[in-house]
Specification:
The protein has strands at about 10-15, 15-20, 30-40, 40-45, 60-65, 65, 70, 75-80, 85-90. The protein is mainly β and about 90 residues long. Strands 2-3-4-9-8-5 form a 6-stranded antiparallel β-barrel. The protein has a two-stranded antiparallel ribbon with strand order 6-7.
Length: about 90
């Protein structure tokens, strides 16, 4: 099922564990979160035990574990929306 709503890009429901890194925000350097849906421009990350950072926070996201036998690349992103369930982030150019 493709979610459209009022978004630029189509969002596809997909659940993947990702590492989220925000230097200085959490006590641990990185947290494991799960995706709820993804588009070509961003992803919604479900909130875990830790609080979500505020809108505007820059972070880095990487699929947890190897992909195709290699470590997955780190993608820069920015928080654009925070809800009770988690946060929406938009991918930033490298």
């Amino acid at each position: 099922k493709v979610m459209r709503e009022n978004r630029r890009d189509e969002h596809y429901p997909i659940t993947v564990e990702v590492e989220v890194m925000i230097p200085g925000f959490w006590k641990k350097r990185r947290q494991i979160m799960r995706t709820r849906d993804m588009s070509s421009s961003g992803v919604f990350l479900e909130r875990g035990a830790q609080p979500c950072p505020p809108v505007g926070t820059a972070l880095e996201v990487r699929i947890s574990g190897p992909v195709g036998g290699e470590e997955s690349p780190v993608v820069r992103a920015r928080v654009v929306r925070v809800t009770q369930d988690g946060m929406a982030v938009v991918f930033m150019p490298s």
